[in-house]
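Reviewer 2 asked us to include a model.

Predict the structure of this chain.
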Amino acid sequence: QVQLVESGGGLVQAGGSLRLSCAASVPTFSNIAMGWFRQAPGKEREFVAAIARSESSTYYTDSVKGRFTISRDNAKNTVYLQMNSLKPEDTAVYYCAVRGAVAAPASRIWTNSYEYSDWGQGTQVTVSS
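Predicted model (structure tokens):
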């Protein structure tokens, strides 16, 4: 059974930085693609960033481009989301998600929540103005 454990959330002032981590217990971490999503109070869950099996293939929603960086460490079975220049509108619960990707090209990216099979419990990020 897949388990995803997020960490790194917290309270930060606008302009600050946080790094989220998502540790995945999966048989072969290099065979999966991962994504980060977020959900603010009263809003639907939205896509933030994704990374393919190939760590060089990444994709971001427009609102975080240039500020957030997704990366993966296959040796540690962990995906990261480095968040810089945080804004109050980044406040949300952040979720990591995983899906199998061994049958797809290594650069394949998925951006829809329904395309992911397993989810973490979420970590709260609060950005004060």
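The first strand starts at residue 3 and ends at 7. The chain has a mean pLDDT of 97. We have added this to the supplementary material.
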